[in-house]
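Run folding on both entries below.
>entry_1
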Amino acid sequence: MRRFKKFVTLLSITFLLLATGCKLAQPVVQHAAVTAPNAFQDETDSIGIASLKWRSLFTDPKLSALIDTALRNNLDLKIAAQRIEMARSGVQFAQGALFPNVGAEISGGGRKFGDYTMDGVGNYDTNFSENLNSDRKLPAPFLPDYFVGLRSSWEIDIWGKLKARKKAAYNRLLATDKARHAIITGLIAQVASEYYRLVALDNELAIIRKNIVLQESAVETIKIQKEGGRANELAVRQFLAQLINTRGLEVETQQKIIAVENGLNMLLGRFPQTISRINLTEQTFPQHISAGIPANMLKRRPDVRQAQLELQAFYSEQQSAQLAFLPSLNITALLGFNSFKSNLLFSPASIAYGAAAGLAAPLINRKALKANQKRAEAESQAALYNYNKTILTGFQEVSTSLKRLENTRKILGLKANEVEVLQQGVSISKDLFLTGYASYLEVILAQRNVLDAELTLTEVTRNQFLALIELYRALGGGWEQDL
């Protein structure tokens, strides 16, 4: 009767654990992410520039060579590759937990039992047995213990806890690979941006030097005017001061060129050296630019995919933390030689083996498991918010870049007209000054205005290329290139 009651009690506990396990093994409910709109604002074309290979978008051969060098030598990209290897090791570690752990063991030890203990009395009394030969006599008073063999332990993944950890590690591996893709996209965009900044500075330097020549001619002219009594020393000083100021701009621009070249070389993973480039006036700009369908952008943009995979990884960890409350089935086994005499250790009679299985579940102190579950839930929720934020950020960047391209194109046309008008004004002011119909201040102002307008036109042209590059990066272009 007592045995039957024990059996019923054990059966009830097992049924309760299994019922609880089925409930805890249910998938964790996860909140939905934000829904993407069907199209970008003012964007209807379905073919986006992000589908282009970067070589097709950046046709400048000098720029293509720089991007190739950066993709081979950039240190951030090399670091990202090592992070992938670390994540791959995490997957192998999680996968190894699904299989038995078998280890070879060589151990030795001993113990002296108290004379007034069950082991002490039992060992003493055993030696008087007539059934024992000399080899089986127990050493006294110190009892050695030697073992050579294999020990194994294995947690059977009955609830899928270990598989959830493996899935989390695998998603992290994929997320790390997407992080590398994001670095590739950002690196291509950064190299291209610095390149166009460099060629724009070259153009600015050419404009400044052209204006220096014009201003030097104006200084000589005003000196001749002074000698003829048609101008004074103040006019000479004003023209000379303008020339000195422009020469200062020349030196400042040269320093900017050096700084941009050094920064670009840093991206290429090499020491400072001269960057070969093509003039800004020879650069081509795409006639038609489209962002494409937002859903396609979500599939292409690496940081969105990375955030999604990290969200899935935290979800799997949350599931694993929940399943940690369930009983775990562990199997242990050993096979080897065991003896209390070293000279008999490898005797056939010393072969020992054993196996045991146990089902254990936390019952009383489960604070650590609850804390781990709360942490996993918070991380999963934070990952969801980060995923939503990444989507919103992507749409904001694309929308801003599209508008920037549109407005820059308009500004470029207006600035080109302004430069043309001001260049005509410089010629007219010089003729009027020579005939006495304009003052030297008007000539100085005209020269200064045309210099500022030409530099602004160069800046707007550069910003147009930068806006194109930023749109390409925001759409996740460039990373498809095989490296």
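>entry_2
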Amino acid sequence: MAPPQKGKQATKGAKQIVEENQGTLNFYRNMAMISNALSLAVLVFYSSTINIVLYFFSIAVYIGAYQFMAYMSKPKYAENGQLLDSGTDLNMKGGVAEEVKDIIILTAGCQLLASFISNYFWLLWLLAPARLGWIVWKNILKPYFFQSAPENPELDEKKQKKLERKQKRMANIR
């Protein structure tokens, strides 16, 4: 492992981004598959209607999240096989992919905890809309509601002198 660098972070090459994206997709696909397999093993012996419905809902969440990440990171190649675009970097800090990965992790945690401990752990899924609400508040609503009042735009000298002459004329008329 390379020692940590001080200063500016090094940029990644397009091929490195493609390789890391493939590794990231494989990791989260395996996480979803293992979580589903373990949950299905428990579901076979202890099943209720709500468990079955939530199991299928979790499968839909996994598929949707995985397909979204695969679509985001799809590289584009030229006809001769040259890499034109590496796709979105799934490991970029603060990106949308980070939130999608969190959804997969949350779903796996809910599914496994609900399968092995208590069905009440399915309620942890309510953290996803709460997180969405927080992101919307922080990035959209809060800056809108608490923006400072616009300051008087400074007039250039020409307009300032014109305004002063106009005020003097108005004072002379009175």
